[in-house]
């Protein structure tokens, strides 16, 4: 039987998706397993795969199929129309990008990551400055090629969060920062009155065992995924092969747990997207803000809650009897939820975390507005860190080079974290209203109830709705910074030392 144009379109989209997955796995391997001397070859491999994927994404045959389906749009179902509309958006972008540029950018992203690794370790920004300048130039060039040179930063925000732009991000993050900065300082000051717990000597292998228990309870499908170790935790792949990473520190066991839970949240979203639509808009995530809402809701609303630790604390203590001896339950819970201003994003609590994002957003906005040069970044970072976080980085490795994003060319990505936090707060409120026994079940170790709710109310929508659209549909209102502020005020009252 002759295949329909829509079937032919989905075949081409899935072929393209498979090429990109292969590239993603090579990127995962670069951060997890790559031998130190293989960096140049890996850059060439990634560049070639990107070139092949671009050839597929901009092929005339793909364009003709989209044209033919648009010509009879009235005969398409709503789902088919969405697939075609997103395919059109992606195709139009692909044909405007020269193949040489695509290859060059992929190769540059890989090499930049390798330079960043070494520069971050040494703390020498001078070794990274030219890489950052090059990545900014490449980002501007891509926006120009797509006719967005005049609003390059908005283009990149929309690239990672379709339907979003600089105006929307600014309308959320600017008032969030104004209200959050004094609130975070007040909460942190109240927490400072309580003694800090010292966590030392937690063996890496035991940490991994505990993390695997938690991820299994969350519902991560290990038959179609795996957990590994990386310098900077991340998630890659799709629901059929989902790779997540964390990192281990014997004197900071909570970092491994919360990083793994965070990345597992991403993975559960990928594993929950409709597999029959894989490779199309209806099997794809809605964007990074929705993705981050899934990772943050598991990390913060669940894994830092009293309900979660009611079940998991005895297991944690059984795994680390000597290491937790003498630490009370309240002291451990305070260690898990202590609000403390500091210079490192990945070490931040859920309250001050958003100040880190606002810092990065403000610098990116200035960079793309031409107000901040690469050479001025370390000084600007230090000043912003002092103003927002009352903290001065010990080095540029702990400051402007602490994150992999700029080395990977991911400008416009950072705002997704805070928008994801806003959406997560709204989703959590709605999930608790829909399922009044949710926290009771979490306290009993049953995490499937939340996963089931997220499958129905977030994962099933795939790319049908933007973050704002999902908030309206599920939570009953557009995204608002007040949702997150209200959640923080309820979750973190100003404490008084007894």
Write a structural description.
The structure is a single chain. The protein is mainly alpha-helical. The protein folds into 2 domains: 5-127, no CATH class; 166-491, Neurolysin, domain 3, CATH 1.10.1370.30. It contains 21 helices and 3 strands. It has helices at 5-32, 39-57, 60-71, 78-96, 99-122, 129-145, 152-160, 166-191, 204-218, 253-272, 288-302, 306-319, 321-324, 329-337, 353-368, 377-389, 415-434, 438-443, 448-457, 467-475, 481-491, and strands at 225-229, 235-238, 241-246. A hairpin with a 2-residue loop joins strand 2 (235-238) and strand 3. Helix 6 (129-145) packs across helix 7, helix 10 (253-272) crosses helix 11 (288-302) and helix 15 (353-368) packs antiparallel against helix 17. It is globular, with a radius of gyration of 23 Å. The model has no long low-confidence stretch (mean pLDDT 96).
